[in-house]
Amino acid sequence: MISWNAKQYGKFSPLIYDYLTDETKTRSYFDEFPTSSNLIQQSKRKLEQYKHRQITQKALENQLSTLDLSEKQKEHLEKFKLENSVTITTGHQLNLLSGPLYFFYKIIQVVKCCDEMNQKHPEFNFIPIFWMATEDHDFEEINHFYFKGKKISWDREAKGAVGRFNLDGIDKVFEEFFTYLPDSTNAKSLKNIIQNAYLNSSNLTEATTKLVQQLFGHLGLLMIDGDDKELKKLMIPAFEEDLLQNTAFQTVNQTNQNLTDSGYGIQVHPREINLFYLGEGSIRERIVLLNGEYHVLNSDYRFSQKEILEELHTYPEKFSPNVLLRPLYQETILPNVAYIGGAGECAYWLQLKDFFESQNILYPLVVVRNSLLLLSNQQKSKLEKLGIDYKELFLPFHQLLNQNIGQNSKVEVPFEEYESQLMQIFDELEKAATQTDVSFSKMVNAQRKRQLDGFEKLKKRLIKAEKRQQSERVGRISQIYSEIFPSENLQERVDNFSAFYLEYHPDLIDEIYRDIQPLEFRFTIKSWV
Question: How far apart are CA 123 and CA 82, in angstroms?
Fold first, then answer.
């Protein structure tokens, strides 16, 4: 195993890199950096402000009532009632069979963070929460997963909030997937998980809840669905303000301008109204104000100001927050002290501090999730035979290949030594030239560049020849690289957990848990011994 911190990894956007390395110019975009001591202070502040415990606890009980909860889940659900209980949260879309691997990393990091804080600070109860993005409507992002390079897709007509989708055709998807599975104990266990989740549920929210329950329930994780009338009642004042005053639009736009002036990119842009309307016939469409009337795009819904406010107060469940209002929703209904998310998520959280202040809601600590690269025993063996060190895996592919070919070449040409000698010669010529004639100095530098360019061509020609000589090695390196970085992406952004479950269950979750660092970004490459 090997791991990098943020500076060593260095593959973030400038904003997240500066945030993780605590650059002073990012300080205005968050309150406190995530540390154990700051979590305690955040808990004290949140508990002074939080006022929706009873309603949220009842909603959690109702939502989880059909599940066979583990003892740890029951304990956390009971502790949620207590005045010294806070939450640490992550969230995700309802990807088919959890989607990419980082789904696992986010959840396990939340669980481990709570476990460590509970152990060190028993004066508080830290409860891990998974927020399910049931109201998201981008079906194309969630309707597939990748298993050993194969794309398994659920193709169907799709409109509206994905959590409400029925599961028509899902049985055919998993029938196909099951044909790829071996006849093994772990494969049978995986099939049971899928059957219990997807083949015994009425909609995608229920199926995903059951999937998460089977995978992480024993860790005490509680799942919450924001598509809930009682919870949305708590957001009526904030939704009303968004409809009438466009506060999010104004404050986040100002923050975005500040970010741009500081040289940072913008993750999300606010709209004047940051709400969708959930209508009949699977409608989830944006609300816009046109000529004094509220329109629901791509529908016949029209409201006067009085009518839309009446609709909001009577049917709050029909109003759905977008990516900017959802964090406010979460922090309003939960006693939450920290959010753990990917770099992209954390980037848009850093756009929201001033907006949270305008709503008198405490801004949480923002934690960038850990990343892992999981190597099978076979992949580890291949890398060892090729002489590739884990540290070399994050070199650009052509650099990794050239370096490895050069290290295994039978022809040793000390290019660096020769280049150093050549530079020394031209340095001496230039020194003499400056004492004689300016034009001669320019000629020396032009010749220096010509010779160095020639040296570079020689090196490339030699590497090209070596690649022909070592074509088998080139093929093996290309193959292992494509396995580890599918489609030149990080493994965690493409591969599904299922292939690793087949090989490493029941140790998969425990192994990931062991290597996660809850409050410190790490990129870890690990293999099983």
Answer: 11
Tell me the mean pLDDT in the region 76-91: 98
Task: Assign residue 252 a region (left: φ > 0; alpha: ψ between -120 and 50; beta: otherwise).
Answer: alpha
Collapsing DSSP to helix, strand or coil, 474 comes out as: helix
Report the C-alpha gap between 498 and 48 in whole angstroms.
43
From CA 220, how far away is CA 115, in angstroms rounded? 10
CA dihedral sign of residues 266, 271, 272, 275: negative
Rounded to two decimals, what is the model's pTM?
0.89
- Among 319-323, 398-402, 477-481, name the one with the lowest average pLDDT: 398-402
Phi, then psi, of 408 in degrees rounded to 5: -105, 15
Q: 283: which strand partners?
A: 279
Distance (Å, rounded) from C-alpha 523 to C-alpha 506? 23
What is the number of alpha carbons within 13 Å of residue 324 lying toward its C-beta?
30
**Helix, strand and coil in the chain, % to nearest 5:** 55, 15, 30
- Of the candidates 274, 278, 285, the one whose C-alpha atom is nearest the C-alpha of residue 241 is 274
Q: According to the model, what pLDDT value does residue 528 have? A: 78
Q: What angle do CA 264, 266, 272 make, to 5 degrees?
A: 140
- What are the residues facing 303 on neighbouring strands? 294
Q: Please count the other Cβ atoms lying within 10 Å of the Cβ belonging to residue 152.
A: 18
What burial letters (b/e) apply to 113-125, b meaning 16+ CB within 10 Å? bbbbbbeeeeebb
Q: What is the average per-residue pLDDT within 68-73?
A: 98
Long-range CB pairs of 73-77, under 8 A, 24+ apart, other chains included: 73/217, 73/220, 73/221, 73/222, 75/220, 76/125, 76/127, 76/128, 76/220, 76/222, 77/222
Contacts of 301 (CB under 8 A, 6+ apart): 277, 279, 283, 295
List, in order, residues 6 or more apart from 75 with CB less than 8 Å away. 220
Phi, psi of 4 (to 5 degrees): -115, 150
